[in-house]
Amino acid sequence: MTVKPLLRALSGETVWPPPVWLMRQAGRYLPEYRAIREKFPDFVAMCVTPEAAAEVTLQPVRRFGMDAAILFSDILILPWALGWDLRFSHGEGPVLARWQSEHDTSRLNSALAPSRYAPVMETVRLVASALAPAQALIGFAGGPFTVACYMVEGGGSPDHAATRTAALADPEGFSGLVAALTEATIAYLAAQIEAGADVVMIFDSWAGVLPPSLFDRYVSQPTRRIVNGLRALGHKTPVIGFPRLAGSLVATYAGHTGVAAVGVDTGTSVRHVRRDLPSGIAIQGNLDPMALKVGGAALTREAAFVLDQLSGGPAIFNLGHGIVPQTPPQHVADLVTQLRSV
User: Using CA atoms, how far apart are residues 256 and 251, in angstroms rounded to an integer?
Assistant: First the structure.
C-alpha cells in the first residue's frame, strides 16, 4: 500500500524532498481554470457544481504533479450553507449580510443545510476517486474567527476594525458567533473526511489582526475545539492549522491546538517557529508568492532558502499565501522541478 508523502510528513516523519502543494494552486493563473470559470457568472454556483469544482481541483495536480490536491471551494461556503446571505461582486470579492449582535447569530441555521453542502461532498468524492495512490486530498474550512470577520465586516476589510471592535465591545455576543461557527465547522470538516478527504486544513487568514490578549480565545481555543470535536467523532485525520500573520504566536498555537502541522506565512521565520515548536509537528511554508510570480534566478534562490529553512524536521513545501493570478504557469512547473531535484 502506497503511503502518501503528505501523510508521512503529517505523521511527524522527515520526508526529503518535502511534499509540495501550493495554496490557490487551482486558480486564475491557469488558462484551463479560466475556461471553466467563464461558464459560471456566479462563483458560488461554480463551487457547488461538483463536476466543475472537481475538474479545477484536479487541474494543477495533473499539470504539475503536486503531492496533494486541495478541494476547490471557498471558506464562505460554510456561512452560506448555514443560510447566511452571500454573493460575490465582480471585481470586489464577497459581499455578506452584516452581523451586528447576538440576535443575528440566532439567524444562523442550527445545522448545516444538507441540500447546500451535499454538492461539496460530491466534489470530494469525485476528486478522491481520481487521484493517484500517492496523492492526498486536502479538505478545508475557514477558521471561525476569520469567517466571523467576513460576517461582521460584510465582506473584505483593510483593517477589520468592526470585528476588533465587536470582540472588545460585545465579547459575549461575538463569542457566541465564533462558537456557533466552530460547531458548524466540526460538522462540515467531518463530512469532508467521510467523503474522502485525507487531510483537512483550517485557514485562519486574519488571525494576526488580533492582539495577543484575544488570540487564544478567538483563534487557538476554537481550533482546539475543532480538532477535539473531530477526534470525538472518531476521525484521526490530520489537521493543518494556518494562523496567518500570527508571528511569534504560531508555535504556541501549534502546541495548544493539537494540529499535525502549522502553516507559516511569508513574513514569519521558519527557523524561529521550529525552535519553539513541539516535537513531531510539521511546518508548512513559506515561499513568497511574488518570488513565484517573478520566476527565474529569484525563484530558484528563494525556493532554496525556504528548503534550507524547512530542513531538519517534518515539513511541507508551500507558499506563505496563495498564488497570485499574474503568475506564469511555467514558473510553477520550474519550482516543482527544482524541488524534485534536491
Answer: 9
